[in-house]
Amino acid sequence: MARWFGTSRGRSARKAGSKGEVSPGSSHGSGPGEAAGAAGGAGVGAVPGVGEPLGAADELRLAYGRTGDPALLRRAVRLAEQARDHYPADDPHHAAGLSTLCMLYRLRWERERDVRLLDRSLAYGRQAVDISPPGDPELTRHMSSLGTSLQEVFDHRGRLADIDEAIGLYRACLDLLPPGHPEHASQRSNLANSLLRRVQREPEPATLEEALTHARQALNATPADHPDHPIRLVNLGGALLLLAMAGSPVHAAQAQAMYEQALREFPPSHPARPGIQRTIQRLRSLRGTS
Asked: Nearest 5 degrees, angle CA 238-CA 243-CA 248?
């Protein structure tokens, strides 16, 4: 995997700073568009008796996100496994199958909390990145998917090496994607989240300022009607909240505005809402307002 980081223009991951659920006080995820997206679903050849397995697996993943039906998740895993077994190791679709399994086993981990599922997610993600051929247009998706799993590992085990590796992956994604690329803002948001994760463990002003910069740029690049807009409001709010906790009242007011706007934009059933509401109450207490 180290071969993909030789041209990174970002600071070393050791010098940087922390996943989607970073914003203090909230419980949102990185969101469907914040991690890896559809790993190689388009244009994939048919597997006998299956059709286009990666595309079908990703559709089932998205349907699971809408419904929470575990049967959809199990079916998606089976299709991704069939794709992995069908394509040879030097075929980019093989790496896409592994990356899809990385995402799906992370989702299983989030549901079942069996650490063996998280370990499998991590293993699949590493394999996908390692075997991706040079120039593979899906490489950034594979790296992003692995980075999201590493954030889950960091949340579970608390090892700084895991969040540093995630930071390095997201930096590499930004190196590979031009600023106008449709996934560039997502990777900025992912990097901001990872930096925030880290700074909550090891406070460092430069890391927090970098997280704030990436979160703000990701939000500015996201149209107001984009489904990820409220997520990115929360990401920026999280960075501002940490600055507020360091003693800056103006940042507390800005953070509260970000969270309140996000609350208005999230649908009523979104799982992030209770955490956002708690954070708003926390900011009101911090500011001495009702």
From this structure: 135
